Amino acid sequence: MANGWSVITGLLICVAMAVAAWFFSPKGENQVLWRSSIILSIACCFLMWAITFLAQLHPLIAPRRSDLREEYVHH
């Protein structure tokens, strides 16, 4: 089930992927560009996933039903 540990697990997986990208990036004159691009892509993907995941795990606004009549709505 989804819980807060999923974010930490995802972070550890992304860190492992970034370390692998650091060591296995193609050698040559563009090595720094390859490393930066891959690691930045991994970081951005993680941030987008984590923000979306946490927004669904703990929503700021509770959903309300709009199809109820006024006398059944409890404020």
From TrEMBL:
It comes from the Eukaryota. It is a multi-pass membrane protein. Belongs to the V-ATPase e1/e2 subunit family. GO terms for biological process: vacuolar acidification. The lineage of its organism: Eukaryota, Fungi, Dikarya, Ascomycota, Pezizomycotina. Its main location: membrane. Keywords: Hydrogen ion transport, Ion transport, Membrane, Transmembrane, Transmembrane helix, Transport. This is ATPase, V0 complex, subunit E1/e2. One of its GO terms (cellular component) is vacuolar proton-transporting V-type ATPase, V0 domain. InterPro entries: ATPase_V0-cplx_e1/e2_su. One of its GO terms (molecular function) is proton-transporting ATPase activity, rotational mechanism. The chain crosses the membrane at residues 7-25, 37-55. It is found in: Endomembrane system. It holds the Pfam family ATP_synt_H.
